[in-house]
Write a structure and sequence with these properties.
With 332 residues, the chain is α/β, with parallel strands linked by helices. Helix content is 16%, strand content 28%. The protein has one domain: Metallo-beta-lactamase, Chain A. The strands form 4 sheets. Strands 1, 2, 14, 15, 18, 19, 20 and 21 form an 8-stranded mixed β-sheet that branches. Strands 4-22-3-7-8-9-10-13 form an 8-stranded mixed β-sheet. A hairpin with a 2-residue loop joins strand 16 and strand 17. Helix 5 packs parallel to helix 6. It is globular, with a radius of gyration of 19 Å.
Length: 332
């Protein structure tokens, strides 16, 4: 299932026939959002539950949960075979597994987990998966920095430590934890995990307020080198690139995906682009210029992208821009 390789060699990423991506967790839920292009929304009221305060004990939608977290179910079809992986797991112990229940998705159907990086809003839902699955030898792919103890230092505020995933908890659950700094394959060379992403744009700053506990002291850790993306090569269309938070810089990520795969066209870019807040919002015009040069056919900013960036992308990219919401499935 898992293969690594020499990163100096151009990667022969096997084309896949189709990709189906379901948003299991994001910052937004919206039962009224319409279908758009490849995005199909869960019908309102598809999963009902009874409300004791509703007239005649009637039914109301068993609404999906949104939180400041991110998780995707990625289903890859290749010939007569189908592969299912989880990319990130959300911010709360039970949010993702509860949304899977509401969406009638079996956690036992997942064959692998890829964590984009070690921040808790992408990892804590593994807790719920452990309780749903019991002991499992499922592979979990991470970068070695995933385990770092970290905190955020903001001017005028006390340091805020970021919860860290327990190595012991994953080991005791039976997961096959695979730490890899270089790019690696899943599912017969059809899914590429980028590993560490080179920072080449010169203007995407990572996460400047972050520190890590290294050598018995807090030290600057702005690059978030464990930030990694997923890449698929969709037959006849081009690359599908999935990002978690995009701490490596969404332009860096997209360009690296193309460089790894022989400059394939960028068909779809989906995930967190980390353009929210006063430090990152001034970058929006330059990021949009550089993304426009890549001509994405589908652009789905999510999670930590921020509303200013999303509005700017909507105006700039027209129908290629698709807003995300929990429960949305993209048929690519």
């Amino acid at each position: 299932m898992f293969h690594d390789f020499d990163p100096a060699v151009e990667i022969d990423l096997e084309p896949v026939d189709s990709v189906r991506i379901t948003t299991l967790m994001d910052n937004v839920t919206d039962m009224l959002m319409p279908d758009q292009g490849p995005a199909h929304r869960i019908p309102r009221g598809e999963v009902p539950r009874r409300g004791t305060t509703v007239m005649d004990n009637g039914e109301v939608p068993d609404a999906l949960i949104a939180e400041h977290g991110f998780s995707l179910l990625v289903v890859v079809s290749k010939g007569d075979r189908e592969y299912r992986l989880l990319y990130d797991a959300g911010a709360s112990p039970d949010g993702v597994v509860e949304n899977m229940r509401r969406l009638d998705i079996d956690p036992g159907s997942i064959q692998a987990i890829v964590c984009s990086h070690g921040h808790f809003d992408h990892t804590t839902g593994i807790d719920g998966l452990i309780r749903a699955l019991g002991r499992t030898n499922m592979p979990v792919l991470i970068h070695p920095h995933f385990w770092r103890r970290r905190r955020i230092m903001l001017p005028g505020r006390e340091p805020l430590e970021i919860p860290t995933t327990s190595r012991r908890a994953l080991d005791e659950a039976g997961f096959d934890v695979i730490e890899e700094q270089q790019p690696s394959f899943l599912f017969e060379r059809s899914v590429l995990v980028t590993g560490e992403i080179p920072r080449t744009t010169g203007y995407e700053p990572g996460f400047p307020s972050q520190q890590a506990w290294l050598h018995d002291e807090w030290q600057p850790d702005p690059l978030v080198l464990d930030d990694q993306a997923l890449i698929l090569n969709l037959q006849g269309k081009g690359l599908v690139v999935l990002t978690g938070c995009g701490h490596a810089g969404v332009v860096n990520i997209a360009r690296y995906a193309q460089r790894l795969t022989g400059e394939q066209p960028l068909h779809a870019l989906l995930g967190g682009f980390h353009l929210n807040g006063p430090l990152f919002e001034p970058l929006i015009p330059r990021v949009l210029d550089d993304l426009a040069a890549l001509h994405p056919g589908v652009l789905v900013p999510a999670h930590c992208t921020g509303w200013r960036a999303q509005h700017a992308m909507s105006a700039r990219f027209g129908p290629a821009f698709i807003p995300n919401s929990v429960g949305t499935t993209f048929h690519l």
